Amino acid sequence: MNHRKWLWMVVLLACWFPALLNPAHAQTYTALESMQIHANRATSSLLLYRGEGFQKAHLARMESDLKALADRVDSFPGARNDLNQLHQVLQTTLREGASFGRKEDDMPWGWPLQMSKALRDFLTAVRSQQGANVRAELPAKVEYLTVQYLSRAYVGSFETAREQPDTYLGQDERRLVPSIDEQLAALDGKSNVAIAKLKTRWEFLKVALEDMNSGNNSFNTASGRAFAPIMVDRHARSLSDQWMALAPD
Fold it and tell me: 115 and 94 in contact (C-beta within 8 Å)?
Protein backbone atom coordinates (compact mmCIF):
# COMPACT_ATOMS: atom_id res chain seq x y z
CA MET A 1 0.00 0.00 0.00
CA ASN A 2 2.74 2.40 0.93
CA HIS A 3 4.54 1.45 -2.28
CA ARG A 4 1.43 2.28 -4.32
CA LYS A 5 1.01 5.61 -2.59
CA TRP A 6 4.61 6.46 -3.33
CA LEU A 7 4.11 5.61 -7.01
CA TRP A 8 1.01 7.83 -7.19
CA MET A 9 2.93 10.70 -5.67
CA VAL A 10 5.67 10.29 -8.26
CA VAL A 11 3.07 10.35 -11.06
CA LEU A 12 1.37 13.44 -9.64
CA LEU A 13 4.66 15.28 -9.24
CA ALA A 14 5.59 14.38 -12.80
CA CYS A 15 2.33 15.94 -13.97
CA TRP A 16 2.63 19.03 -11.83
CA PHE A 17 6.32 19.73 -12.44
CA PRO A 18 5.94 21.14 -15.97
CA ALA A 19 3.07 23.31 -14.80
CA LEU A 20 5.23 24.63 -12.01
CA LEU A 21 8.09 25.37 -14.39
CA ASN A 22 6.11 26.93 -17.24
CA PRO A 23 5.14 30.19 -15.50
CA ALA A 24 8.76 30.91 -14.63
CA HIS A 25 9.88 30.01 -18.14
CA ALA A 26 7.14 32.16 -19.66
CA GLN A 27 8.06 35.07 -17.40
CA THR A 28 11.73 34.81 -18.40
CA TYR A 29 10.88 34.57 -22.07
CA THR A 30 8.45 37.49 -21.90
CA ALA A 31 11.17 39.63 -20.31
CA LEU A 32 13.61 38.79 -23.13
CA GLU A 33 10.96 39.44 -25.74
CA SER A 34 10.06 42.74 -24.10
CA MET A 35 13.70 43.87 -24.06
CA GLN A 36 13.87 43.37 -27.82
CA ILE A 37 10.65 45.30 -28.37
CA HIS A 38 11.59 48.28 -26.19
CA ALA A 39 15.11 48.51 -27.63
CA ASN A 40 13.66 48.74 -31.13
CA ARG A 41 11.01 51.19 -30.01
CA ALA A 42 13.53 53.51 -28.36
CA THR A 43 15.52 53.55 -31.61
CA SER A 44 12.39 54.32 -33.63
CA SER A 45 11.53 57.16 -31.24
CA LEU A 46 14.96 58.70 -31.74
CA LEU A 47 14.59 58.48 -35.51
CA LEU A 48 11.20 60.18 -35.30
CA TYR A 49 12.64 62.86 -33.02
CA ARG A 50 15.36 63.73 -35.50
CA GLY A 51 13.28 63.19 -38.62
CA GLU A 52 10.15 65.07 -37.57
CA GLY A 53 11.63 68.37 -36.46
CA PHE A 54 12.91 67.64 -32.94
CA GLN A 55 9.48 67.57 -31.32
CA LYS A 56 9.59 67.24 -27.54
CA ALA A 57 6.89 64.58 -27.61
CA HIS A 58 9.13 62.23 -29.58
CA LEU A 59 12.07 62.86 -27.25
CA ALA A 60 9.84 62.18 -24.26
CA ARG A 61 8.67 58.97 -25.91
CA MET A 62 12.26 57.89 -26.46
CA GLU A 63 13.02 58.42 -22.77
CA SER A 64 9.89 56.47 -21.87
CA ASP A 65 11.00 53.61 -24.12
CA LEU A 66 14.49 53.69 -22.60
CA LYS A 67 13.02 53.58 -19.09
CA ALA A 68 10.84 50.61 -19.99
CA LEU A 69 13.91 48.88 -21.40
CA ALA A 70 16.04 49.70 -18.35
CA ASP A 71 13.33 48.40 -16.02
CA ARG A 72 13.28 45.09 -17.88
CA VAL A 73 17.05 44.73 -17.90
CA ASP A 74 17.43 45.70 -14.23
CA SER A 75 14.73 43.27 -13.10
CA PHE A 76 15.96 40.35 -15.19
CA PRO A 77 17.80 37.97 -12.85
CA GLY A 78 19.66 36.16 -15.59
CA ALA A 79 21.22 39.24 -17.20
CA ARG A 80 24.89 38.65 -17.94
CA ASN A 81 27.51 41.38 -17.74
CA ASP A 82 27.71 41.65 -21.53
CA LEU A 83 23.96 42.31 -21.69
CA ASN A 84 24.21 45.09 -19.11
CA GLN A 85 27.21 46.63 -20.86
CA LEU A 86 25.56 46.55 -24.29
CA HIS A 87 22.43 48.04 -22.78
CA GLN A 88 24.49 50.98 -21.52
CA VAL A 89 26.08 51.39 -24.95
CA LEU A 90 22.66 51.48 -26.62
CA GLN A 91 21.31 54.03 -24.14
CA THR A 92 24.36 56.25 -24.54
CA THR A 93 24.28 56.01 -28.34
CA LEU A 94 20.60 56.94 -28.61
CA ARG A 95 20.92 59.88 -26.25
CA GLU A 96 23.98 61.04 -28.15
CA GLY A 97 21.91 60.91 -31.33
CA ALA A 98 19.31 63.13 -29.70
CA SER A 99 21.97 65.66 -28.68
CA PHE A 100 23.23 66.43 -32.19
CA GLY A 101 22.03 69.70 -33.72
CA ARG A 102 19.33 70.12 -36.32
CA LYS A 103 21.59 70.59 -39.35
CA GLU A 104 22.64 67.59 -41.38
CA ASP A 105 26.31 68.39 -40.74
CA ASP A 106 25.72 68.35 -37.00
CA MET A 107 25.42 64.57 -37.02
CA PRO A 108 28.65 62.71 -37.87
CA TRP A 109 28.23 60.76 -41.10
CA GLY A 110 29.19 57.50 -39.42
CA TRP A 111 26.79 57.82 -36.50
CA PRO A 112 23.86 55.93 -38.14
CA LEU A 113 26.21 52.94 -38.43
CA GLN A 114 27.04 53.26 -34.73
CA MET A 115 23.33 53.34 -33.94
CA SER A 116 22.71 50.23 -36.04
CA LYS A 117 25.57 48.39 -34.36
CA ALA A 118 24.53 49.38 -30.83
CA LEU A 119 21.01 48.07 -31.45
CA ARG A 120 22.16 44.89 -33.20
CA ASP A 121 24.70 44.05 -30.51
CA PHE A 122 22.18 44.48 -27.72
CA LEU A 123 19.50 42.45 -29.51
CA THR A 124 22.05 39.71 -30.25
CA ALA A 125 22.95 39.51 -26.57
CA VAL A 126 19.28 39.28 -25.58
CA ARG A 127 18.54 36.57 -28.14
CA SER A 128 21.53 34.55 -26.96
CA GLN A 129 19.78 34.08 -23.61
CA GLN A 130 16.48 32.79 -24.96
CA GLY A 131 17.94 29.59 -26.40
CA ALA A 132 16.09 27.85 -29.20
CA ASN A 133 12.70 29.27 -28.24
CA VAL A 134 12.05 31.89 -30.92
CA ARG A 135 8.35 31.27 -31.53
CA ALA A 136 7.17 34.56 -30.00
CA GLU A 137 9.57 36.82 -31.88
CA LEU A 138 6.87 38.21 -34.17
CA PRO A 139 6.50 41.57 -32.38
CA ALA A 140 10.27 42.01 -32.25
CA LYS A 141 10.45 41.31 -36.00
CA VAL A 142 7.79 43.94 -36.68
CA GLU A 143 9.53 46.54 -34.51
CA TYR A 144 12.96 45.74 -36.01
CA LEU A 145 11.55 46.11 -39.51
CA THR A 146 10.05 49.44 -38.46
CA VAL A 147 13.48 50.67 -37.35
CA GLN A 148 14.78 49.78 -40.83
CA TYR A 149 11.90 51.64 -42.47
CA LEU A 150 12.38 54.78 -40.37
CA SER A 151 16.13 54.66 -40.96
CA ARG A 152 15.65 54.64 -44.73
CA ALA A 153 13.09 57.42 -44.47
CA TYR A 154 15.18 59.74 -42.27
CA VAL A 155 18.92 58.96 -42.12
CA GLY A 156 19.78 56.33 -44.74
CA SER A 157 19.97 52.56 -44.75
CA PHE A 158 20.06 50.50 -41.58
CA GLU A 159 22.89 47.97 -41.47
CA THR A 160 21.52 44.56 -40.55
CA ALA A 161 23.59 41.77 -38.99
CA ARG A 162 24.98 40.20 -42.15
CA GLU A 163 26.74 37.55 -40.10
CA GLN A 164 23.31 36.35 -38.88
CA PRO A 165 21.32 35.70 -42.09
CA ASP A 166 19.21 33.03 -40.38
CA THR A 167 17.95 35.31 -37.59
CA TYR A 168 15.67 38.29 -37.97
CA LEU A 169 18.61 40.55 -37.06
CA GLY A 170 20.25 39.78 -40.39
CA GLN A 171 17.11 40.17 -42.49
CA ASP A 172 15.16 42.96 -44.17
CA GLU A 173 11.63 43.09 -45.54
CA ARG A 174 12.42 40.58 -48.29
CA ARG A 175 12.63 37.80 -45.70
CA LEU A 176 10.90 39.28 -42.67
CA VAL A 177 7.56 40.05 -44.35
CA PRO A 178 7.11 36.43 -45.57
CA SER A 179 8.25 35.18 -42.16
CA ILE A 180 5.68 37.30 -40.34
CA ASP A 181 3.03 36.26 -42.88
CA GLU A 182 3.78 32.61 -42.11
CA GLN A 183 3.48 33.12 -38.36
CA LEU A 184 0.19 34.96 -38.68
CA ALA A 185 -1.22 32.41 -41.13
CA ALA A 186 -0.85 29.75 -38.44
CA LEU A 187 -3.24 31.67 -36.17
CA ASP A 188 -6.98 31.11 -36.30
CA GLY A 189 -8.58 34.46 -37.11
CA LYS A 190 -12.03 32.96 -37.72
CA SER A 191 -12.73 31.96 -34.14
CA ASN A 192 -10.77 34.77 -32.46
CA VAL A 193 -11.76 38.37 -33.20
CA ALA A 194 -8.54 39.73 -31.70
CA ILE A 195 -6.43 37.65 -34.07
CA ALA A 196 -8.59 38.73 -37.00
CA LYS A 197 -7.95 42.38 -36.10
CA LEU A 198 -4.23 41.64 -35.78
CA LYS A 199 -4.16 40.15 -39.27
CA THR A 200 -6.08 43.08 -40.72
CA ARG A 201 -3.63 45.58 -39.25
CA TRP A 202 -0.71 43.57 -40.59
CA GLU A 203 -2.17 43.46 -44.12
CA PHE A 204 -2.34 47.25 -44.04
CA LEU A 205 1.12 47.68 -42.54
CA LYS A 206 2.95 45.24 -44.77
CA VAL A 207 2.02 47.19 -47.92
CA ALA A 208 4.28 50.00 -46.72
CA LEU A 209 7.00 47.68 -45.41
CA GLU A 210 7.18 45.70 -48.67
CA ASP A 211 7.60 49.03 -50.48
CA MET A 212 10.78 49.83 -48.52
CA ASN A 213 13.00 48.74 -51.40
CA SER A 214 16.01 47.70 -49.29
CA GLY A 215 17.77 46.16 -52.27
CA ASN A 216 18.07 49.57 -53.93
CA ASN A 217 20.64 52.18 -52.88
CA SER A 218 18.61 55.11 -54.21
CA PHE A 219 16.54 55.33 -51.00
CA ASN A 220 13.33 55.53 -52.98
CA THR A 221 10.37 53.26 -52.35
CA ALA A 222 9.73 50.51 -54.89
CA SER A 223 6.45 52.14 -55.93
CA GLY A 224 7.83 55.66 -56.04
CA ARG A 225 5.43 56.79 -53.32
CA ALA A 226 6.73 58.87 -50.42
CA PHE A 227 7.80 57.10 -47.24
CA ALA A 228 5.19 57.14 -44.47
CA PRO A 229 7.26 56.72 -41.28
CA ILE A 230 4.73 58.11 -38.81
CA MET A 231 2.01 55.80 -40.10
CA VAL A 232 4.32 52.77 -40.10
CA ASP A 233 5.56 53.53 -36.58
CA ARG A 234 2.03 53.93 -35.20
CA HIS A 235 0.65 50.75 -36.73
CA ALA A 236 3.74 48.72 -35.82
CA ARG A 237 3.40 49.67 -32.16
CA SER A 238 -0.29 48.87 -32.17
CA LEU A 239 0.32 45.52 -33.82
CA SER A 240 3.03 44.44 -31.39
CA ASP A 241 0.84 45.58 -28.48
CA GLN A 242 -2.02 43.48 -29.85
CA TRP A 243 0.23 40.47 -30.29
CA MET A 244 1.63 40.69 -26.77
CA ALA A 245 -1.89 40.99 -25.38
CA LEU A 246 -2.81 37.72 -27.08
CA ALA A 247 0.11 35.92 -25.38
CA PRO A 248 0.05 33.17 -28.03
CA ASP A 249 1.34 29.73 -27.12
Answer: yes
CA pair distance 145, 134, nearest whole angstrom: 17
Burial 122-160 (b: 16+ CB within 10 A, else e): bbbbbbebbeeeeebbbbbbbbbbbbbbbbbbbbebbbb
- In 10 A of CB 64, how many CB atoms? 14
Note the pTM of the prediction, 2 decimals: 0.86
Task: Please give the pLDDT value at position 28.
Answer: 53
> Is residue 167 a contact partner of residue 161, using CB atoms and an 8 Å limit?
yes
d(CA 35, CA 79): 11
Cβ neighbours of residue 40 closer than 8 Å, sequence gap 6 or more: 119, 123, 140, 143, 144, 146, 147
- Report how far apart, in Å, the C-alpha atoms of 197 and of each of 100, 178, 214, 234 are: 40, 19, 28, 15
Q: First vs last Cα of the chain: how many Å apart?
A: 40
Query: What is the chain's mean pLDDT, rounded?
Result: 85
- CB 66 within 8 Å of CB 49: no
